[in-house]
Design brief:
The complex is a heterodimer. By secondary structure, chain A is of the alpha+beta class. Chain A has helices spanning about 1-15, 20-35, 45-70, and strands at about 80-85, 85-90, 95-100. The chains are: A alpha+beta, B mainly alpha. The interface of A and B includes residues 17, 19, 22 and 35 of A.
Chain lengths: ~120, ~180
């Protein structure tokens, strides 16, 4: 019996120790009721997906725009024709290169150089 | 069936009455869990706000008390964990904790401090079950639901916690209580 009353007294003691001020309770209730009026601020369930898609679209758009704005790289258009062992390369801007085998070296001969005194 | 089961349309007046009954119990519960009055008030308010919101949007939950205390329990757990995590940083930075020094010095000599100290010596689940029963005034079924346990296990926990608390609590300051075993 004494043990039982001890157990009940412990409950009362805990309640008394943790008893809340009426002003605090009122404040909590007032704020709770006021805050409960507004809709909870929740993130849209698809917010992440939308943000990712938007980033992707913007990124792709930016890349395409930069690509379009860049001046076209000079694409050399060359016409190559061959004549025997000679290769002639004509450029659009009028330049021409002739590529052929290296000229044969002249073989040395017996010459006499006369120098007037 | 729980005692607070939904029965048709419940007007806003009843919501306010429920909130008024719940608020002091929520604050007391959160105070016992966190040991800080400011944090306890915040937790109680958040739990109450969530209940009010739920009530107005989709009607009252099956057990408003259980609903609010389940939220308060989660928030209190987070607050305790956060404080445990930040305590070393605060100590390094020299930041004062929630409890003001003068008040704390006073409270250390009060009944609240001894009750909180004894509570901390209990196992976490035992303490939680006891608090939900004694301070939250929830039924065994509701506590079992909140703690995701069985009513029989909850009864056992509460009984064990009570006996342990009797042994742990020092003699009452006004001498009403005899020295416990």
């Amino acid at each position: 019996m004494d043990d039982e009353s001890n157990l009940h007294e412990v409950d009362a003691r805990v309640r008394a120790a943790l008893m809340t001020d009426a002003a605090v309770s009122d404040r909590v209730v007032t704020r709770g009721l006021a805050d409960g009026n507004g809709r909870p601020v929740r993130h849209h369930p698809y917010a992440v997906a939308i943000a990712a898609a938007l980033t992707l679209v913007l990124g792709a758009g930016g890349w395409a725009w930069r690509r379009a704005a860049r001046p076209p790289a000079a694409s050399p258009s060359l016409a190559i024709t061959g004549h025997g062992s000679i290769l002639v390369v004509d450029s659009q801007d009028g330049r021409r290169w002739v590529v052929g085998p290296a000229p044969e070296r002249r073989t040395g001969g017996n010459y006499v150089i006369v120098v007037p005194q | 069936m729980l005692p607070n089961a939904r029965i048709g349309f419940i007007p806003g007046v009843e919501l306010e009455a429920v909130a008024r009954m719940l608020a002091p119990r929520l604050v007391a519960y959160a105070l016992a869990r966190t040991g800080c009055r400011g944090t306890a008030e915040d937790i109680a308010q958040e739990a109450l706000t969530a209940l009010v919101r739920r009530w107005r949007q989709t009607g009252p939950p099956e057990s408003p008390d259980g609903y609010a205390f389940a939220i308060a329990r989660r928030r209190a757990g987070r607050a305790v964990a956060r404080r445990a995590l930040l305590a070393p940083l605060d100590a390094l930075r020299g930041v004062a904790r929630d409890e003001p020094g003068v008040d704390q010095a006073y409270e250390d000599r009060t009944e609240l401090a001894s009750v909180l100290s004894a509570m901390r010596a209990l196992g976490r689940a035992d303490r939680d079950a006891l608090l939900l029963r004694v301070v939250g005034e929830l039924s065994f079924d509701e506590i079992a639901h909140v703690m995701r346990s069985s009513p029989a296990a909850v009864k056992m926990r509460i009984s064990r916690a009570r006996r342990r608390l009797v042994a742990l609590l020092p003699e009452h300051s006004n001498g009403r209580r005899k020295q416990s075993a």
